[in-house]
Amino acid sequence: MEDATSKTDFFVVKALEDGVHVIGLTRGTETRFHHSEKLDKGEVMIAQFTEHTSAIKVRGKAFIQTSHGELSNE
Ligand code: TRP
């Protein structure tokens, strides 16, 4: 969905171990990694979906909150 609201959602990722990666994937016809952020245990990232970022991939144990709910991938 390319409406304005699809780019205003925030998400929160809290690392439950060292070396968790939050990987930003591009919006548009070509889906590729464009940014990788490394979090150590206890670190929190608060970020927004944007014109450039339509999806994220979280690698490692983390607690994730979005407007759709919250989950842990442990
Ligand atoms: N410059 C990126 C953007 O505006 C920064 C960014 C936003 C990002 N949300 C993210 C990077 C989520 C990684 C994960 O799209």
TrEMBL record:
<dbReference type="InterPro" id="IPR000824">
    <property type="entry name" value="MtrB"/>
</dbReference>
<dbReference type="InterPro" id="IPR023558">
    <property type="entry name" value="Trp_RNA-bd_attenuator_dom"/>
</dbReference>
<dbReference type="GO" id="GO:0003723">
    <property type="term" value="F:RNA binding"/>
</dbReference>
<dbReference type="InterPro" id="IPR016031">
    <property type="entry name" value="Trp_RNA-bd_attenuator-like_dom"/>
</dbReference>
<keyword id="KW-0805">Transcription regulation</keyword>
<dbReference type="GO" id="GO:0006355">
    <property type="term" value="P:regulation of DNA-templated transcription"/>
</dbReference>
<keyword id="KW-0804">Transcription</keyword>
<dbReference type="Pfam" id="PF02081">
    <property type="entry name" value="TrpBP"/>
</dbReference>
<dbReference type="GO" id="GO:0006353">
    <property type="term" value="P:DNA-templated transcription termination"/>
</dbReference>
<comment type="subunit">
    <text>Oligomer of 11 identical subunits arranged in doughnut-like structure.</text>
</comment>
<feature type="domain" description="Tryptophan RNA-binding attenuator protein">
    <location>
        <begin position="7"/>
        <end position="74"/>
    </location>
</feature>
<protein>
    <recommendedName>
        <fullName>Transcription attenuation protein MtrB</fullName>
    </recommendedName>
</protein>
<comment type="function">
    <text>Required for transcription attenuation control in the Trp operon. This trans-acting factor seems to recognize a 10 bases nucleotide sequence in the Trp leader transcript causing transcription termination. Binds the leader RNA only in presence of L-tryptophan.</text>
</comment>
<comment type="similarity">
    <text>Belongs to the MtrB family.</text>
</comment>
<keyword id="KW-0694">RNA-binding</keyword>
